[in-house]
Amino acid sequence: MSKTLEFLNSLTDRELAYFSKFKLHKYSKYTQDDIKEFLKIKNFSEEKINSLIPSGRYAENNQTKQCPQCGSKKLLINNVQWTETYGKIGWEDDKAVAKGFSGKITYKDEVICNVCDYWLQDPNGRGPNAGKKLRGWSFWNLLDWILK
Q1: Would you list the DSSP string of 113-142?
Q2: Residue 15's Cα: distance from chain center in Å?
Q3: E strands of 26-95, at which residues?
Q4: Could you report the per-residue pLDDT of 103-144, keeping only the tens digit for each?
Q5: What is the sign, positive or negative, of the torsion defined by CA atoms of 126, 131, 132, 134?
Q6: pLDDT digits over 49-102, tens only?
Q7: How far is it, in rounded angstroms, from Cα 114 to Cα 125?
Q8: Is the separation of the CB atoms in 138 and 86 below 8 Å?
Q9: What pLDDT is attached to residue 16?
Q10: Distance between CA 69 and CA 114 in Å, rounded?
Q11: Are 65 and 73 in contact (CB under 8 A)?
C-alpha cells in the first residue's frame, strides 16, 4: 500500500472530506486517480463531502494545536530559517536581525495542516495567504514611503 493510501486510511470521514476539497488538486494526475478511487470505495460523493464540511471555521483551541479550518490535529511542523524580519517592530525581530549581522541564523516553526493545507503559522509570509494579511506600519515603512 502506498504512503498516500496509508495516510488516507488514517483520516476520519470529516478529515477525508476536507482533504478531498482542499488538497486533492495538489497531487499528480496519477495520484489523484488513486485518491479518487479510494473515495469511490469509501462511498464519498460530492454531496457527502459538502455535507461533512460546515460553513464556518473551528474555534481555536488553546489546549491542543489543531487546524482552525478543519479541526484536525494532523499538522506538519517545519523548522525553517526566519528571513522576513525587515521593517517589523519587536524585541524578537531586533534580536533576529542582530543575530543575522553576526552570521547566526534564527529558526521558527512553520505549521501547515496536513489534511486541508491551511497554514497556521507562516513566519516568512510565503504561504497561500501571505498577501492577504494587512501588515502593520513601522517607522521604517513610513520613512520609506516619505522618501519615495
Answers
A1: ETTT--EEE-TTS-STTGGGSPPPP-HHHH
A2: 15
A3: 75-81
A4: 777 788 889 999 999 888 888 777 776 655 445 556 666 677
A5: positive
A6: 888 888 666 655 555 688 888 888 999 998 888 777 666 666 666 676 667 677
A7: 18
A8: no
A9: 93
A10: 12
A11: yes
Query: Which cell is 16 given?
Result: 477525508
For cell 536581525, what's the residue?
Answer: 97
Could you count the other beta carbons within 10 Å of the beta carbon of residue 26? 9
Chain CA centroid to CA 75, Å: 9
CA distance 138 to 142: 6
Residues in the chain: 148
Amino acid, single-letter form, for residue 54: P
Residue 121 β-bridge partners: 111
